[in-house]
């Protein structure tokens, strides 16, 4: 199976990756991730292969690969539904939604449907406790479907109706696209306008954080925090379905006033580091 890893693309990714670490072992997590993105899971044979590349013992690579639940140790269905069963989600009804899923798909947690479309697994805290019960569909949080995409609005947890919508979305997607499109090295979708740049880049540019938009006397005040490596900023406001740039504050600024803004306007701040454009950070006034 690991012959599939012997491609020019994989070799180039690994070569570029190894250059970023003074000690090859540092690249292990990402080498395992590359394996999973190519094969769909991480077989034992590939863990040994990763150990060889990263110059560490197979036992160490095995320990790392089995510590993180993001690595799959068996093939799964096209949509891996990972249900959080930890405390907050449990209190919010995780067990109920897991049994709804098991009943609806006719499988138990740990199993895959006969058509190979869905696998259900139970996982521990996914870090989205405020929106429980939550699940991941492959790499994406999903407690709902909105605008024809998987969505997880704050404080909107899974329920039977929303779960049904998600399953229908997955089935429609499978009918429309015979294969899942490739993801970028960190799991995000490639090719989005403001997303992670395509190419051999293994760390996403830092986005603007803690973005808030507040209606004030003289318009709307938009504030944010950025990492020191950010070289340019853009503030955009939504106009109908389009985003329009309304300002390019300096990286030394931490506030922008939109004099023609009002409560209800939607904003996003986009941070650029060199040639790399971060994912936009959204805020509503
Ligand atoms: S407890 Fe479920 S996401 Fe944290």
Q: What percentage of residues falls in helices of 4 or more residues?
A: 25-40%
Rg, Å, rounded: 21 Å
Distance N terminus to C terminus? 52 Å
> Remind me, CATH topology of the largest domain?
Glutaredoxin
Q: Which stretches are low in confidence, meaning pLDDT under 50 for 5 or more residues running?
A: 186-202
Bound molecules: FE2/S2 (inorganic) cluster
Query: CATH class of the largest domain, please?
Result: Alpha Beta
Strand content: 15-25%
Domains, number: 3
| Count of distinct strands | 14
Number of helices: 7
User: Quaternary arrangement of the chains shown?
Assistant: single chain
- Bulk shape: globular
Secondary-structure arrangement, i.e. CATH architecture of the largest domain: 3-Layer(aba) Sandwich
Main sheet, how many strands, which sense, barrel?
5 strands, antiparallel
Write the H/E string, N to C: HHHHEHHEEEEEHEEEEEEEE
In CATH, the homologous superfamily of the largest domain goes by the name Glutaredoxin
């Amino acid at each position: 199976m690991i012959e599939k890893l012997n491609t020019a693309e994989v070799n180039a990714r690994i070569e570029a990756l190894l250059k970023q670490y003074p000690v090859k072992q540092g690249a292990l997590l990402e080498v395992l991730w590359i394996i999973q993105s190519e094969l769909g899971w991480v077989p034992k044979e590939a863990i040994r292969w990763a150990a060889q590349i990263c110059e560490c013992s197979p036992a160490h690579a095995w320990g790392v690969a089995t510590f993180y639940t993001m690595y799959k140790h068996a093939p799964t269905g096209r949509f891996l539904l990972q249900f959080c069963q930890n405390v907050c989600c449990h209190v919010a009804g995780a067990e109920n939604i897991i049994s709804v899923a098991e009943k609806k798909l006719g499988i138990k947690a740990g199993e895959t449907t006969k058509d190979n479309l869905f696998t259900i697994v139970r996982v521990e805290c996914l870090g989205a406790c405020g929106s429980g019960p939550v699940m991941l569909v492959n790499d994406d949080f999903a407690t709902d479907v909105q605008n024809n995409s998987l969505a997880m609005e704050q404080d909107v947890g899974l329920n039977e109706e929303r779960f049904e919508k998600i399953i229908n979305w997955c089935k429609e997607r499978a009918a429309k696209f015979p294969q899942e499109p490739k993801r970028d090295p960190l799991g995000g979708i490639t090719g989005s306008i403001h997303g992670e740049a395509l190419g051999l880049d293994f760390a996403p540019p830092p986005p603007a954080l803690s973005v808030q938009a507040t209606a004030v006397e003289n318009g709307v005040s938009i504030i944010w925090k950025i990492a020191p490596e950010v070289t340019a900023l853009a503030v955009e406001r939504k106009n109908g379905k389009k985003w329009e740039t309304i300002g390019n504050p300096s990286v030394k600024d931490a506030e922008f006033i939109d004099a023609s803004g009002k409560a209800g306007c939607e904003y996003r701040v986009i941070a650029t580091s060199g040639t790399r454009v971060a994912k936009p950070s959204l805020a509503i006034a």
